[in-house]
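Appendix B: a complete holo record

For completeness, this appendix reproduces one full record from the ligand-bound portion of the collection. The bound molecule is zinc ion. The inputs are the chain sequence and the ligand SMILES; the output is the full three-dimensional arrangement of the complex, encoded as structure tokens. No fields have been trimmed.
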Amino acid sequence: MTERFSQGFLDRIIAATDVGSVIGRFTALKRRGNKLVGLCPFHKEKTPSFTVDPDRGLYYCFGCHAGGSIFNFLMEKEGLTFYQSVELLARESGIELPKLKSGGKSKDDTYEAADYGARFFQKALKADIGGEARDYLKSRGISGKTWEVFGLGWAPADRNHLVTSVEKARKETESFLEIGLLAKSDRGKLYAKINDALVFPISTSSGRIVGFAHRRIREDPNYTGPKYINSADNDIYHKSSILYGLAQARAAIRREKKTVLVEGYFDVIALADKGIDNAVATCGTALTSEQANLLARFAPTVIVIFDGDEAGLRATLRSLEILLEAGLNVSIVRLPEGEDPDSFVLAEGSSALTDIIEIAPDWFDWLYDFGWGESEGSGVTAAVSVVDRIAIPLGSISDSMKRNLYVRELSKRLSIDEKSVLDHLRRSYQKQRSRFSESSDIPTHEELPARAKLELSLVAAVLHSNSGDNGENPLTLYPGLWEKAVGGYTPAEILSEIADERARGYLSATICEGKSENIKFHCEMLRYKLSRMNIQEKIESIQNRLREIGNGENKEEEATLLGELNSLVRKLNDLGKTTIK
Ligand SMILES: [Zn+2]
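The structure of the chain with zinc ion bound, as generated:
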């Protein structure tokens, strides 16, 4: 689905919206000049670095570099799609939504490709060709209704299937390559990347499909790779921010006020099939704080279910820290060794698991008992090992009152005065976590490449200058932004279309910083730097090629390259003379 609002429409909504009070629902804002500032709602901080430009409808955080339009803000904080966020603000300000016109855009095309792929696999699972896969699902006790809810599919063994279907439908293959459904052989021939496998579409919390996991259903003694293979991160899919099954589980999570966190795709599906429909899983990676914050938006409590082995225990302790840090209440269920939720439900029935979930102990009680159990020493050694076990998760809790209540409880149980317990907790925490003092709450973002910064600065400058710059498009990383920037689109409209968070944050900050005094000169300067970079890159690649072919072998190519090199160097010199007056 490509959704595009007419130019100016988003601006009308922003003009009619009290942007400060919408964002103010998430963090308290104070006026400073024509901006509003407050504590960042995207990362933990003690001094405000979060800025809102209410007139333009933009926000930016100097700490974690989150940024974008008010629509991006609602997408991030409320888990809405772009369309839903526009719809929400339009409704609040009494503006009627126009009929949408379609337009081509690469990100939308990627969504469309993901949708198309999912439907293709779903059809195959229902067709004759999917018989074996349906039998397999049945053998694992999954009903047809459930696999439809999760949109499971079957990728046929023939590598041409999807290719033929895509070509027949006259779809652009580029986005299928981006999302990892198609690939190209060395000879340039397209083939389907997923084949002979059960497919699990992965979607955002609002239900938009953005990636795929797949697994074989037959035992292959020669195969040694991972059981589940997951799409690589791309334009629209960022593993670290997505929880498998959240779209299907979100209503149940809100209703139950708790989320069940499991390890595998199949666990989520098996539990849902047996009526435990508030379960989610990470997508084959360790839990991230982004995912924990996402969970915190839906319900205050998380029940972690994990396999009884050593690896499961370590993963749980790590997840526990992250969940507590996000302010969640955490309860823990440890299954007997060798069991996962899927096998447990099959063996013991769903009510057995429901009962266990119902009485799952708070992490503190669980870890307290666990600490006693694992220590073989005397009472004193055991007590110390209990405190050591609890120190790290306790230190992860940001709410000081909550933390203090746990300390008091611990001191009561061990019959040791609070101060001694606290001292030991602190020392133990620091010993186990010397890295703590160095690390800050700010998530680390990779720096944007120099070219990206230049291009985005130029876009911001063109927006500030309001002059329909009619020179040729100098952008190579964000070519689509040029036409919009010179075509009079507003910052919010442009920002709403940038998928990459870093780029969006950077552009939003640059726009918020305000207009340079001599904006015309500033634009020219940036254009000059970009052109220079373009030429320098070409020169570099020619020099590399010259080094590659070495001396003497290929006289003809060498001569051509030297000729090109000369003219590029001349161009570089001329550029300085003509552009900057
Ligand atoms: Zn921030």
